[in-house]
Design goal:
Layout: H1 3-10, H2 12-15, H3 23-30, E1 47-56, E2 59-68, E3 80-84, H4 95-106, E4 110-114, H5 124-145, E5 149-154, H6 156-169, H7 175-178, E6 181-187, H8 200-203, H9 212-222, H10 240-243, E7 249-254, H11 260-270, E8 273-277, H12 290-304
Parallel strand pairs: 3-4, 3-5, 5-6, 6-7, 7-8
Antiparallel strand pairs: 1-2, 2-4
Amino acid sequence: MSLQMRLLAALPGRSGRASWTSAAKVRDLMGRPHPSTPVPHELYQVNHVVTDTVPTADGEFTTYSLVPATDAPRDTPLDICIYVHGGGYVHGLSTAHWTFISDIAGAGMKVIVPDYGLAPEYEATSAARLLDAVLDRAVAEADAAGLGIRLAADSAGAGLALGWMLDRADRTDRTSRIDRIDRAVLSSPWLDATCSSPGTEELVAEDPWLHPDGLRIAGEAWGRQAGVGSVLVSPLKASDAALASLPPLHIWSGTRDVLHADATLLSRRTGCGMTVVDGALHNFPLLRTPEGKTARREIISRLAT
């Protein structure tokens, strides 16, 4: 484990992650809005950024599209990556997310980022409807130009993305569109809002940032309509047959993360690849550490090739 990773683990308060270490702290967290950070100004220097509004039954939501700022025309066809951000369903996009998204675009992809509604005001079914609309648009664009569609997601966003794909797989009006996603990459996925995956409790002492008691509070708010034990909210509740319907997956997970138990269980049940980094903290591919930089290069390579 690098020195930077050790320092982050030793100083959770300074990293801003200590608010997830208890149920009381997460309740307090949910009492205050945490909207998405705007696209940082410096990223406009290396990307063409388009902001759009997507109407759904729950209102209008913002989506962002980033493509690399090259000499090519802005409408040059590029394979599409839909990025679903994490944040425990109560935090919007962070600067770290935007930097990662910009790096993905820099590999020669168009990255579409839905800014879904957060708990406690919104919940999982609302976000799933937004993803339906985003995918519909992406499929229309990709089919017209013969492009591929990939999906990248981190933490709670990975749970949302997998839950949405599994939930829609049983609907004849959605299945063909879900099938257009040809691969997915997941960083430190939260896949069981009840935090009941085998091995979770054994990881509590190793994780300085997250605790199941805090995560469950956010999970209950996110699942208040669909149910915290539904496949949409907790995709690990799906059958093995349903999990087999997912596109090819690869997971990045660290051993000092309570959610490593979720990642391990998904890999075992699906046979998907998993890169495990010993001593790495939650969502380390978004961190500016040697482990994070390596994982980021690996993720981008898998998406772009």
